[in-house]
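Side project, low priority. Logging it here so it doesn't get lost.
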Amino acid sequence: MKEIIVKSKYDGKKLNSFLLDNFDGLSMNLLYKTLRKKDIRVNNVKVNQNIIIHTGDNIKVYIPDDQLFAKLPAFDILYEDNNIMIINKPTGIEVVGSNDSLTNLILKQKSSLNSNQQISKENIFLAPCHRLDRNTSGLVLFAKNETSLSILLEKFKNREIEKIYRARIYGIPPKKEQLLTAYLFKDNKKSVVYISDSPKKGYVKILTYYKLIESNIKENTSLLEINLLTGKTHQIRAHLAHIGYPILGDGKYGNNQINKKFGYKFQQLKSYSITFKFTTESGCLEYLNNHTFKFEI
């Protein structure tokens, strides 16, 4: 049984609309069947019709949870406490921006787990502190309260949080490690960035450091560890492609024939580790200082 209180935005609305809005796994057929059986109560009165409801009404629904809530993907939570959450984001999902974004799916998950306590998605604070491309996988840091969010955004701005990536590229760089310098222009209309070796109007300076982890001479591929010293849109993907070492699976900046040869549908780029390197006041998050959270590959 699930119990839910009607909020003001549903005042004067139909019962069916309210239930379908609040239980994303509930089908219309099951709803009508439940009404016929009088397994829905409004203010402890059994109902069998699509009645009008009002603010403050108490609705009890006698339907199993697995039929009320849509099946949500299971996310790999690397770490969680009262202030932060670090999640291993899979490929093919945005961090924010849609109903099926990582942020919204986690909020749905948490609200369904707490449904007996009347904790709705709107009452749970969860905000990403940075972004990953839709088809880049790996660690995403979330703040679980406004104080933590404010601190973490400031730390990212001051470069006091280090993110390390790993990328599988086509080719074998001659240098085992290198700090790459270039200039990047973002074309918002085309959703693409361009790289130049020299300064140009509208271009911003970028710094990308890589270290060679391993290489496969037979396949002509390498695994790189990458540290972004500047964090711009598509920086890793575009910068590596610009120097002749595209990330395998990258359909935008890579080589489609090579991608097809290796069978990769998404760019082989992963946010691999997050290290807190606080040099300024960090308030309630001081306990995170000098800690590294790493995805074990």
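Brief comment: The two ends are 42 Å apart (CA to CA).
Revisit when time allows.
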